Amino acid sequence: MLGQMDIFIFILTIIVTAIFTAVVRRELIRADIRDNPIVSEHRQKSGTPTMGGFGILIGVVLVTLFIFSLDATSYLIITVLIMVVAGFFGMFDDLLGFKVKEYQKVVVNNGDKPVQIGLLTLEPGEEARVASEKAKADYARIVEEEHKLEVVDEIPIKSETSETEKIIIQFVVACFIILPGVLQTNVLGFNIGLLMIPLAILAIIGSINAVNLIDGMDGLAAGIIAIASIASALYANITMGSVASLPFVVLAGACVGFLVLNHYPAKIFMGDTGSFALGAGYMVAALLGNTLIFSIIALAVPIVSVIISLLHRAHIITLPVEPLHHTLNYHGMSEQKIIYLYWAITFVVSVIALFIFGII
Question: How far apart are CA 313 and CA 292, in angstroms?
């Protein structure tokens, strides 16, 4: 179990992160750096400050500096450095998002029969965003020939780096972890040598994308990483000691501190600045602390969400809205219920993993 020092650092990180997230929020409002969600169900959140991940980064950096003299901070320092690098790249993606690429129409089926548009079938009264090229072509035909769709809104779509560019950036971030000795990381007790390099890179890229994808509802990503980090800290502390658990303790504290202003209804969003940093930091902590398999299991909810989105993009399945949590919201489940459901599943999976690995 975690010691008194770990608990003290956890509480300290919560307090420091909460304070500086509030400071960052105030400055973001002054600079008019605000989000403009493209999901129809979340349009009421327009104007909420984004790039709040700076509050998380400031929190973990200050706490690391405060406890710098502890012998157990070596893994923490590496983890925080990688988080700062990842957050820096995420910041550029956030800044690019303030440039509008196009305006997408939101249409409603005002007829008395279903209308096929793109990959969706709109029932009478249902709304959808005209996003894909096929949907745009169908819209032009339907409006001209059938007059069954009515435009009810136009949503500004952010500019963003391409998927290829994001993978390249994440690859660069992942390469930083090779230097601090990732070759010493074990997988289920086995040292796989040079094979650890591609595995480490794949794990970090996957973690960044998973956290980035799940960051679409108030407190969803922060809550999941907090729960998974606490579970990983418990596992790391038993198997490797405080040097391995400390990065997870700080990560969990930063997430809980951020949730003070990010819980539903959120007063600030973390943006890619935060999701990139958390995704990279979580997996770096897992690699350094030899908790890779356990930490991947604890991150099951975001990972499954990524898999479902990949199946959607490969046209194996069809989602009316991507990713899955937005589909659940689209079909009538409230945002709060989805958040609590995802948190609960993460908690249950983590407890089961702790039991299987013999920690509890």
Answer: 28
CA distance 86 to 302: 18
Tokens of 339: 């958040």
How remote is the C-alpha of 42 from its chain's centroid? Answer: 17
DSSP structure class, residue 182: G
Cα end-to-end distance, the chain, whole Å: 10
Of residues 72 and 114, the one with the higher pLDDT is: 114
Structure tokens at 192: 């796989």
Calculate the dihedral angle through the C-alpha atoms of 235, 241, 243, 249, rounding to the nearest 10 degrees: 40
Q: What is the C-alpha to C-alpha distance for residues 233 and 236, in angstroms, rounded to an integer?
A: 5
Confidence of residue 181 (pLDDT cuts 50, 70, 90): low
- Give the pLDDT confidence of 22-38 residue by residue, as tens digits: 999 999 999 888 776 55
* Whole-number Cα distances in Å, 259 to 56, 248, 295, 334: 10, 16, 21, 19
Does the pLDDT of residue 179 top 60, yes or no?
no
Model-level pTM?
A: 0.84
d(CA 309, CA 323): 6
Q: For residue 98, which of 42, 53, 25, 157 has the smallest C-alpha distance?
A: 157
